[in-house]
Amino acid sequence: MTKKWDVIIVGGGLAGLVAANYLAKTDLSILVLEKGKKIGGRARTDCIRQQYLNLGPHALYKKGKAKLILEELDVELNGKSPKLGGILVEKNMEYTAPFTLLGIFSTSLLNWKERIEWARVLIKVILINTETLAQQTFEEWVQQTSDSEKVQSLFYLLGRLGTYCHASEKASAKIIVSHLKAVLSGVLYLDNGWQTIIDQLHNKAVISGVQIQTHKAIKQIDPIENDHFKLVLSNNEEFSGKYVLCTTAPHELNHMLGEKATLSQIDAFSKMTAVKGATIDVALTQLPNPKQLFAMGLTDPLYFSVHSSYARLSEDAKSAVLHVFRYYHPDEQIDGITVKNELEQFLEKMQPGWKNYVITSRFIPQINVNQRLPRIGDEQRLNRFKTEFPGLYIAGDWASLDSILSEGAVSSGKQAAEEIIKKEKS
Ligand SMILES: Cc1cc2nc3c(=O)[nH]c(=O)nc-3n(C[C@H](O)[C@H](O)[C@H](O)COP(=O)(O)OP(=O)(O)OC[C@H]3O[C@@H](n4cnc5c(N)ncnc54)[C@H](O)[C@@H]3O)c2cc1C
């Protein structure tokens, strides 16, 4: 006889583990099934040669809802905030980044008129009610906000920094600007990486009775009669649950539902494209240029930051752990070799001779940073799904109506758990 679980959570990333922790406060029996050999998903940290490498650069919004929710679950978040400084690079020229008052006054990137304009629009961002931007793309909002090309470029850059989205003509202004507001309030680089969040969520869930199994790839979710679901794994093992919370990517959910997926859902989910990028994660014995800790391309979609200058990211806390990142446009043809060269050259510009100091380095040519590029109208698509399958819930960085990245993953995990608890009580 297959055991019937009250809740089966598909995926042991941030969303799944947050949901498991909230559900664990009830009497419901909870099973998390993760296809990987480890839990954590994209928030995991790999310890390689005693260096803690997140999967690309990871920064937690200091005033975001993910931090609040994690703290509500008693997750300790230790780390420091990077200074909002560094340089911007454009056509071999380097400029002080105008992200602080001092930066705005001292940068040679902007003339006086542009400095005043930039300061004015930054204040506007802080004060804006993002609900008023629901029907605009980020590009439309930027162009309407300032006529200055430099100021516009700075907004697109901040948009990339805060959301990883490099498609301002497609992305929803409401989501991008709300994340910009959060970025301007500061971020945290976490000691020992984001694995510390995963490990704490995992331990708390297990102590509260949640069962977590790895190496369990679900291939089919079958809504069957009497309000329950049959889950079939790739090895044909079967599990049965009253509620299913799916935290995989939207196209994977379509695939798992197979012919049970409705046409409108297939249509809505297959239109969702991921926010993608490439990363080089590096640990060096020392920095060739210790003063250069942060840089971005002004128009080239490139990022460089030394995370270990603020967070402890190696066993001996002596080495330098840094990330170099390339933001992708969704329509871009990706050539891994070219991108690797581009990232290495950018790093060479910031840290000349870095290759002489490498402890460990890895290049990931393509990774989904967020499973959904947030677009106008996504809210209706996501809401429609909720009504189609009673008992089947979604969470993950793509499933939140008003946020993306860890903000979306953590808040949708909490929300889905609360919806299940409410349904169970009704
Ligand atoms: C390079 C990079 C940089 C980032 N930087 C930031 C940042 O600075 N700030 C920020 O807030 N966020 C950042 N993020 C985003 C953040 O890491 C993710 O939004 C978050 O980790 C997503 O959590 P999730 O649970 O929604 O998805 P995931 O972490 O993807 O978890 C889903 C889990 O489901 C499992 N799964 C999938 N299919 C199946 C199946 N069929 N059966 C069983 N299990 C399955 C997967 O293996 C995975 O473990 C970044 C991400 C990347 C990749």
TrEMBL record:
Keyword Endoplasmic reticulum among UniProt keywords: no
InterPro entries tied to this protein: Amino_oxidase, FAD/NAD-bd_sf, Flavin_amine_oxidase, Zeta_carotene_desat/Oxidored
Gene3D superfamilies associated with the record: 3.90.660.50, FAD/NAD(P)-binding domain (3.50.50.60)
Pfam family, one: Amino_oxidase
Keyword Ubl conjugation in annotation: no
GO MF, any single term: oxidoreductase activity
Domain Amine oxidase: 14-421
Keywords: Oxidoreductase
Superkingdom of the organism of origin: Bacteria
Cofactor(s) named in the record: FAD
UniProt-recorded name of the protein: FAD-dependent pyridine nucleotide-disulfide oxidoreductase
UniProt organism field: Lederbergia lenta
